[in-house]
Design goal:
With 409 residues, the protein is an alpha/beta fold. Helix content is 41%, strand content 19%. The chain folds into three domains: 11-73, Orthogonal Bundle (Arc Repressor Mutant, subunit A); 78-194 and 378-391, ATPase, nucleotide binding domain (Nucleotidyltransferase, domain 5, 2-Layer Sandwich); 204-371, 2-Layer Sandwich (Nucleotidyltransferase, domain 5), CATH 3.30.420.40. The radius of gyration is 22 Å and the shape is globular. The two termini are 26 Å apart.
Length: 409
C-alpha cells in the first residue's frame, strides 16, 4: 500500500493514494485508510468528502457500526482498452472498479495499411460502448496497447517488427480524431503490468516484471511502485534480450533473441521441423497446425509437443534470470494469449530456472505467478492506462510538489 504525505500542497497525490486504498480495500473505513496510508484522520476525511462529492466513492451500510465502509463507485467512469496485434485486435470496456463490462475480438487485417485498421478499430469501439450500455460522456478515454518501438508521450508507433507497414504512425492522434476521445498509447507489456496492478494483482510488492506473450514477447516493469518506461518510453523489450549472439535470426534483425526461440510461432516451427525429421507426434499429418494445437497436444501427453514447450519455457526462464539479476525484482507475472492453456507449465519451469540460477535466490525466493487478468491482459491494461493516469497517485506530481514553494496551512 502506498503511503501519502501530510504536506498541504500535494492534494492530488494524496487523493490518488486515498482512492487507491478504497479501490483495493473493498469496503475500507476512514480510520483504516488513515492507518494504511499514514495520512492524518483530518486529511483523509477531507479527501473522502471530495471523492463523495465527485461521485467517485460511495458509502456502504455500516450495519450499526461507527466505521462506515467506503467503496469505489464503479459506474462513475469507464475506459476503453484496445490491444492491436498482428493477427487479432482485442477490445474491452472497463469500469472504474476494474471490472470488464464488455469484451470483443476481431481480426486486425493487414490491408490496405494502418489507416484502414484505425478506422475499423474506431468503429468497433463505438459499437462496443453502445453494446455495453455505457454513456459516452462517462468514457474517460481510450487506451491502446501495441508492440513497440513507440513513443508513449506522443502516441507515435515506429515500425514494430510484428506490424508490417506501421512506420511512424500517429496512432493516438488518428484514433482520437476518429472517436472524439483522448487516446493513450503504450507498449503492450507495460500496459499489461499496469492492468495487473489496477486489477488488484501484484499487491504487496514494489518491484515486479510482467512478461507478456502474444505473437511476440515483451516485458512491463514496475519499479519502486511506479511504471518504468525509460528514456524513450521503450523500456522492457524483454523479447529482444540476447540469449545467443550467434543464434537464430529474430524479426528485429538481430540474432539469438528470447523471441527467436520462445514466441509461439517459433515453437510451432520447431515442432514442424522435428516432425519433418521423422519424430513421432500426434500432430503429424495435421498440416497448418497452430500454437493452440501444440498446447492441446502437450496437455494430451504428446512427448514432442511437451518437450518443445518445456524447452521454450526454460529459455524464457533463462531470460527472466537476466532480468531478475539486473533489476532485483521481487515478482514475475506471466500473461497474454501466447501462454495458451499451458500457463502452469511455463510458470513451473520459469520458477525452477530462476530458483536455480538467479544471484539473489538464496536471499529471498523470486515469486512467479500467472496474471489474474489472463489472456486479455494487454487490452485490460490498455483501459487501465486511462484510469491509472487519471486517478492513481503519480510520482511525477509529487516530485513537482516537493519543488514547489512551501504552502501555508
Amino acid at each position: 500500500m502506498r503511503r501519502g504525505t501530510n504536506l498541504p500542497w500535494v492534494r492530488d497525490f494524496n487523493q490518488g493514494v486515498v482512492l487507491e486504498a478504497i479501490r483495493l480495500g473493498g469496503g475500507v473505513s476512514r480510520v483504516e485508510i488513515a492507518h494504511r496510508t499514514g495520512l492524518t484522520a483530518q486529511t483523509v476525511s477531507n479527501i473522502v468528502r471530495r471523492l463523495l462529492g465527485q461521485g467517485l466513492v460511495v458509502e456502504g451500510s455500516d450495519g450499526g457500526q461507527r466505521r462506515v465502509p467506503l467503496h469505489v463507485n464503479p459506474e462513475a467512469h469507464f475506459a476503453v482498452g484496445v490491444q492491436i496485434d498482428v493477427d487479432e485486435t482485442s477490445f474491452v470496456v472497463l469500469d472504474l472498479g476494474g471490472t470488464v463490462v464488455r469484451r470483443r475480438r476481431r481480426g486486425t487485417g493487414r490491408e490496405p495499411g494502418p489507416a484502414s485498421v484505425i478506422r475499423r478499430v474506431a468503429e468497433s469501439i463505438r459499437g462496443l460502448v453502445d453494446d455495453a450500455g455505457v454513456d459516452r460522456d462517462k468514457v474517460l478515454g481510450i487506451g491502446v496497447a501495441c508492440p513497440g518501438p513507440l513513443d508513449h508521450r506522443t502516441g507515435v508507433v515506429f515500425r514494430p517488427p510484428n506490424l508490417a507497414g506501421w512506420d511512424r504512425v500517429p496512432l493516438a492522434d488518428a484514433l482520437s480524431d476518429e472517436t472524439g476521445h483522448p487516446v493513450i498509447v503504450d507498449n503492450d507489456a507495460t500496459a499489461a503490468a499496469i492492468g495487473e496492478r489496477w486489477s488488484g494483482g501484484a499487491q504487496g510488492v514494489r518491484n515486479f516484471a510482467f512478461i507478456y506473450l502474444g505473437v511476440g514477447i515483451g516485458g512491463g516493469l514496475f519499479l519502486e511502485d511506479h511504471a518504468f518506461r525509460g528514456a524513450t518510453t521503450n523500456a522492457g523489450e524483454f523479447g529482444h534480450l540476447t540469449l545467443d549472439p550467434d543464434g537464430a535470426p529474430c524479426s528485429c534483425g538481430s540474432r539469438g533473441c528470447v523471441e527467436a526461440y520462445c514466441a509461439p510461432g517459433r515453437v510451432v516451427a520447431a515442432v514442424e521441423r522435428r516432425i519433418a525429421a521423422g519424430e513421432s507426434s500426434a500432430l503429424a499429418g495435421q498440416p497448418g497446425f497452430r500454437f493452440v494445437d501444440v498446447c492441446r497436444a502437450a496437455r494430451g501427453e504428446d512427448a514432442l509437443a511437451l518437450d518443445e514447450l518445456r524447452r521454450a519455457a526454460w529459455r524464457l526462464g533463462c531470460g527472466v534470470v537476466s532480468l531478475v539479476n539486473l533489476l532485483d525484482v521481487e515478482l514475475i507475472v506471466l500473461g497474454g494469449k501466447g501462454l495458451g492453456n499451458v500457463g502452469d507449465l511455463f510458470r513451473r519451469e520459469i520458477e525452477r530456472t530462476v530458483a536455480e540460477r538467479a544471484m539473489a535466490s538464496d536471499l529471498r525466493p523470486i515469486r512467479v505467478e500467472l496474471s489474474r487478468v489472463g489472456q486479455d491482459a494487454a487490452a485490460v491494461g490498455a483501459a487501465s492506462l486511462v484510469l491509472h493516469t487519471a486517478f492513481a497517485p503519480q510520482q511525477a506530481g509529487l516530485e513537482r510538489a516537493e519543488r514547489a514553494p512551501l504552502a501555508s496551512t
